[in-house]
Amino acid sequence: MPNLFKLLLDWSEVWALFIPLTVLIYKRKIQVESLPLMLYVCIALLLNIMQDYIWKKQLLFFYSSQPGDNIIFYHIHSIIRLLLFSWFFIQVKQPFLHRVKKTVPIVFIIIVIVNYGFFDSIFTKFNSRMLGLEALGILFYCMVYFLNLLTDEEVISYKKNATFWMVTGICMYVVINFPIFIFYERFSANAQKFAIGIWDIHNLTYIMLCVFMAKYFYTTSYE
Amino acid sequence: MSDIFLFVIASVVMILLFASFFKLLILSQQKKINYQQGLQQLREQQHKQLIESAVRSEEEERLRIAEQLHDEIGALLSAAKLHVVGIKNSSLPANEAKLHITAKELLDEAIQKVRSISHNLHSSILTNFGLNEAIAHFVHTTCSQIIETTINLDSSYTVKDSEGDISTLRLVQELIQNILKHAMPTYLIISSKFADNQLVILINHDGEGLSQQEFESLRYKTLGLGLRNIQNRLILLEGTIFFQKNQSSFTINLTIPKK
User: Which 8-state DSSP code applies to residue B91?
Assistant: First the structure.
């Protein structure tokens, strides 16, 4: 039983994405605002299948320094996630800090190019700085959204507001994973067992994120 | 170990900050909801006060007109009748005698109509004998000559609520007048039941009535005063009305809470 649980957890980054994907396929009627998240689900599924398969099968590619090296997929996933989530947040009809929201992905891309071009390798080491920066960027978007809700006079209906569910899910994911991303590089070098343990926490929060995403797709189909 | 400790502290701080922020958000939303509910209650209160003053003005005006009709026009007509009756018919030529009889009949009819209009405008029966008697009197004078009527009112209703009773009577009058005008029934049954501080009045007829759906669509579309009056009085009484279509008849269910 513990082996089955561990196996499920190890592959959770793959099967969890089928939860929102099932809702997407079942509901079919999806709004334009959901496009960034739809794309994220599809791209993330492909990336996660590749990263988990390479790790499980210990495959060796041209970029790999050792068998099972799948770090590049995590980095690409992080970049894609920030870009698509930025698109999602920019589409949310809130005038508060709208220009700043549009600037964040541009600044992030510049930092990515400079960092991976001159400082770190995108292929080999888990880059805590970049993933932490990505989490910070997404957290900024979430805080702007919630601050706008606080200051807005309009009352939102939690049950019917799909965006609220999605932003809450994203916020919970980044809040819990921000310290994990920041410290993971050090733990993977000095305390590998602990690193594996905290990555299991990441996987659990990823399942939770996918559930919130499914809720978002389900609610938007009725709007 | 220090890294693990730092990690744990950082995680706990992040989670606590998020939880506090989320709680603040929920509380602010709750505050907004309470504020909007308070505003809505004030609006409803104001609307009710406006209706109350409109209805009160209407009743005062009705009373004034009823008294003037009865005291002035009624008195004038009665005095005119006395003078006409004072003329001896036998002393008149044949054609003038006919006119004299017609004049007396017209005066009698005018006096009756003035009395009837005066009573309809302001029923002293309501003040002196209560709602049941007022309804029964109205039905008897308006409908019993035209269609078959049955009155079965709950005698346990003895609540003294003059303003509420006036509005209830007006509601019943308005509904019955609408039924007679539009539905063309052959019978009318008015019954009431008073229990659990609620007065339920049922008006059943076999004419062309309204279903609840039709009433709902009419109440917001039509400009007619009748339905508007019914709505205003219902708001005032905090009552409800329900139109039911049965197999061969229609029933109007009026439920009015009585304190």
Answer: G
Q: B13 vs chain A: nearest CA distance in angstroms? A: 10
**pTM (two decimals):** 0.66
Q: How far is CA A11 from CA A200, A207, A209, B207, in A?
A: 10, 11, 15, 72
> What would the DSSP string read from start to end of A162-173?
HHHHHHHHHHHH
pLDDT digits (tens, 9 = 90+) for B220-246: 666 566 777 788 888 888 899 999 888
- Mean pLDDT, rounded, of chain B: 86
Could you please state the CATH topology (level 3) that the domain comprising B129-259 is classified under.
Heat Shock Protein 90 (3.30.565)
- The residue segments making up the domain with residue A48 are 2-220
Crossing angle of helices A128-151/A162-190, nearest 10°?
A: 150
Distance CA B56, CA B175 (A): 20
Contacts of B133 (CB under 8 A, 6+ apart): B125, B126
Give the minimum alpha-carbon distance from A105 to chain B in angstroms, rounded to a whole number: 23
Q: Does the beta carbon of B10 lie under 8 angstroms from any beta carbon of chain A?
A: yes
Bridge partners of A171, per DSSP, are none
pLDDT, position A64: 67
So where are chain B's domains? 1-122, 129-259
Tell me the three state secondary structure of residue B197: coil
What span, in angstroms and rounded, lies between the C-alpha atoms of B185 and B182?
Answer: 9
